Amino acid sequence: MRQVGRFSFSIWQVMLAGAVLTLITGQISPYDAILAINPGVMLFLFGMFIVGEGVKNSGLLEDCITWICRHASSGTMLLVLIIGTMGLLSAVLMNDTIAIIGAPLLLILAGRLGVSKPGAMIALCFSVTTGSVFSPIGNPQNYLIASYIPDLSPYLLFFSGLFIPTLLSLGVIFLFLRPLFREVSNPAEGCRFGEISPDTKPWPVYLSFLCIFTGIGLQIISGLFQMGWAVPIEWIAITAAIPVLVFSKERIRLLRNIDWHTLIFFAAMFVLMQSVYNTGFFQRLIPETGGTDILLVLVAGILFSQVISNVPFVALFQPLLLSSGVSPAIVLALASGSTIAGNLTILGAASNVIIVQQAERQGVHISMRLFCRYGIPVTFFQMCIYAVFLMAIPYESI
Question: Is 218 in contact with 242 (CB distance < 8 Å)?
């Protein structure tokens, strides 16, 4: 219940209330609650939010949208560019970050080019969700999964198993959303959006990107040559955040503007999900073979995420599904199923809620019916693609 009379509640407030209730009622002790919060995930999110805020202030994403605008000679090309740029950016900067930054800019872009604004927002939702699947830092649930498989290079595992099906799944988005992008009017003047912050020197962000890609490269090399060590993903995120903080003229404002509510959401989620996991209630809903059946894990990830959202689903089920001896295909099935769940309904992913709320602030309404009209077939075909590829993975158990 997020609306009680005249009072409305944000998702982070609901999650925090749930965590506080478990503490008040003694379902979990304060000590166990602190232990339940994953510090790696919190540091990773904190670092990536700082990098995302730096990108926002640098004007780089505005440049990206400007480039899209200038090259969108047709509705088909516009849709291809939205899917390609937003999808690939989400794999590097996390889908929630691109949702926060990209939604207002794409609303302006859709208005300038005369295409459906709800269609552009749905395309953004699908693109950031699907594009984040093959990267362990593409979304919070992927990082949460990657943090429980320390013996493997998560970048190597995710890229080798999910990159090709993700490209095909991005193609599915194009096929189903193409009717919403039939017409486009390319303005004669360039598309430059809004004012750029005075703190806008892009080179600190370039340093951040260098840190990210260097860390990813070390992770992949470690996995390829089985060196037995790897740079923790949270270290990569924190290292990438340092240039933005050090060289920012308004670092206090930058820190104030990062998404603290999402950080509160995750801390509260860890406490609440640990308390729920301790009861054993939801674990009974998965058959004993659930940890070995790829299709079952995919379907469970898609459906359960509509009820408790994808990140809480992963937090709740990862001890059961990522036990010792589990196949890498199951790890990837958990990642892909819980992620593409965001394409089924608006409630399937936090990034959808972020985008829809920003659109509604601009007077653009996206109904659940419209979202599901395209989301249901897109999710079904994407699920089939991932299932086929994951069933063919020849890896041994972790």
Answer: no
Q: What's the rounded Cα separation, in Å, for the pair 180 and 151?
A: 45
Coil, strand or helix at 107: helix
pLDDT tens track of the chain, all 398 residues? 556 777 777 777 888 999 999 999 999 999 999 998 888 878 888 888 888 788 777 877 667 767 777 777 777 888 898 899 899 888 887 787 788 778 878 888 888 777 888 999 999 999 999 999 998 888 888 888 877 665 566 778 888 889 999 999 999 999 999 988 876 665 544 455 555 455 556 788 889 888 888 887 776 676 666 666 667 778 888 998 999 888 887 788 888 888 788 788 888 988 988 888 788 776 676 655 445 588 888 998 899 888 777 777 887 777 666 665 677 888 899 999 999 999 998 878 878 877 887 787 778 888 888 999 999 999 999 999 999 999 887 655 44
Overall residue count recorded for the chain in this entry: 398
DSSP states of 53-64: HHHHHHTHHHHH
CA distance 130 to 146: 17
End-to-end CA distance of the chain: 40
Both tokens of residue 286?
């998965």
Contact indicator for 340, 169 with CB cutoff of 8 Å: yes
Burial class, 391, CB count within 10 angstroms (exposed 0-12 / middle 13-18 / buried 19+): exposed
Quickly list H helices, 94-180: 95-113, 117-131, 140-146, 154-177
Q: Which residue has the tokens 């009820």?
A: 307
Q: Residue 161's closest CA among 381, 358, 330?
A: 330
Type and span of the H or E element at 3: strand 3-4
